[in-house]
Each structure stands twice: as structure tokens, then as C-alpha cells.
Q: What sequence folds into this?
């Protein structure tokens, strides 16, 4: 079972968003189960559960884990193909966000568009790496920082922008034969606390920086947005 997988097909996305099927996915992420075992948990007849399982199986969201005999019946034990799922903007290709329409480093909606593109691109890269049976080299940084004042936050952003911009200019080799383009996304946003997930703003901010192989879009020497750092993750060569 994968830790997380990206859903790109619109029909698969629709299937995963059905409340009953989403509940079945959650149950099967915890371990293999048959339609009869799931029926009591979701409050539906076994035949109805089996119908939903077949729909999820057609879209690759669940798979056969094994079979077992129970009396005169052979039960199919199903399991989720991933512990969690993310729906790619490709599932809504005609209306997916396009951060190239406008560039505003202080716009939360532009940041959202960048995040959506990150999900789309990394999902596509994972799909390609899986088919090619190759590892996908990526890196991500995630942390939190508490700013004492808005002035400190502005100074932090200014220094970060200058520092990242300098690194891009130092290592960017547009004429390098055999080189490969990478996209860099850096962000800062207020931390969402679980107990106040609906509240806006806050004194604590968090952010992330990510890089990935990509052949989409032009390279740029313009510095990305922003990112804090406290206990960063170590870079990894992430398997597909």
C-alpha cells in the first residue's frame, strides 16, 4: 500500500468523493476486509457494499488482497491501494488553477494556485516514475517560525527572497547540455491550529519549500515567495 497517491482521472475523483465510497476507502486503508465485513460498519447490505467496491476497484482505488472460504462462499478481501488520496487539479483540467495568469507574491489565492500546480506536477512525475520503474528525486522543507512583529516578518521575507534568488542565479545553467529544469516553490502562510481551523491569521506562521524535476514552464531567476525554517526535513531521494 502506498502512503499517498494522486487521483488524476475525473471519474476516479468522483468515485472517491461519494460519501459511502469514501467511508469504504477509510475502512480498507486500515486493513483488508470483505463486503460482508464492511456491511455492518457502513450500515448497508452486503450486495450494495459489493457494488461500491467494484466501482472503486475499476478506478484503481482498491485492489484484491486475497480470498477466503466462509462456508460455501468464497469472500474477496479488498484493500485500499493507498493510505490516503489527493485529487489532482487534472481531474478538473478545464478549470484548474493557472498561476501564470497573474503573479502576486502577497496573494493567498496565487499561493493556492501554486500549491495546486505542485500537486498536479508532482502527481504526474510520480505516475511517470512508477511506469518507468525509476526513483523520483525530490526535496521538501517544512517548518514553523514565530515572528515577534510584522516588521520582523517583512524583514525575514526580504532576506529569504534575496537568499533564494542568489542561489538560483548561482546554480542556474540555462546553457548546460544535458541539464534538467527544476521548479522551486517557497511559501509562507499562517499556521492553522486544529482547534481554530476556521480562524484567519495568527502570530505563528509556517511554510514549505519544495523542488522537483520538471520540464514544464520556463526557468526564472526571479526569487520565489517565502519560507520559514526550524527543524527542517532532510533531503530525500523519494521513491516513486
A:
Amino acid at each position: 500500500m502506498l502512503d499517498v497517491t494522486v487521483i488524476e482521472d475525473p471519474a476516479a475523483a468522483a468515485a472517491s468523493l461519494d460519501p459511502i465510497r469514501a467511508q469504504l476507502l477509510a475502512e480498507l486503508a486500515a486493513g483488508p476486509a470483505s463486503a460482508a465485513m464492511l456491511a455492518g460498519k457502513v450500515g448497508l447490505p452486503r450486495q450494495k457494499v459489493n457494488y461500491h467496491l467494484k466501482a472503486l476497484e475499476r478506478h484503481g482505488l482498491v485492489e484484491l488482497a486475497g480470498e477466503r472460504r466462509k462456508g460455501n462462499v468464497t469472500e474477496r478481501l479488498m484493500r485500499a491501494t493507498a493510505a490516503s488520496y489527493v485529487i489532482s487539479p487534472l481531474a478538473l483540467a478545464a478549470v484548474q488553477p493557472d498561476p501564470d495568469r497573474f503573479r502576486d507574491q502577497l496573494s493567498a489565492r496565487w499561493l493556492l494556485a501554486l500549491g495546486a500546480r505542485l500537486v498536479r506536477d508532482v502527481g504526474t512525475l510520480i505516475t511517470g516514475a512508477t511506469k518507468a520503474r525509476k526513483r523520483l528525486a525530490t526535496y521538501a522543507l517544512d517548518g514553523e517560525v514565530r515572528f515577534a512583529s510584522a516588521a520582523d516578518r517583512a524583514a525575514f521575507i526580504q532576506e529569504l527572497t534575496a537568499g533564494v534568488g542568489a542561489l538560483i542565479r548561482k546554480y542556474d545553467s540555462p546553457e548546460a547540455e544535458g541539464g534538467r529544469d527544476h521548479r522551486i516553490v517557497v511559501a509562507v502562510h499562517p499556521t492553522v491550529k486544529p482547534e481554530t481551523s476556521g480562524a484567519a491569521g495568527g502570530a505563528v506562521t509556517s511554510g514549505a519549500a519544495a523542488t522537483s524535476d520538471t520540464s514544464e514552464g520556463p526557468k526564472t531567476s526571479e526569487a520565489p515567495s517565502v519560507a520559514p525554517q526550524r527543524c527542517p526535513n532532510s533531503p530525500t531521494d523519494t521513491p516513486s
Observations:
- The chain is about 35% helix and 20% strand.
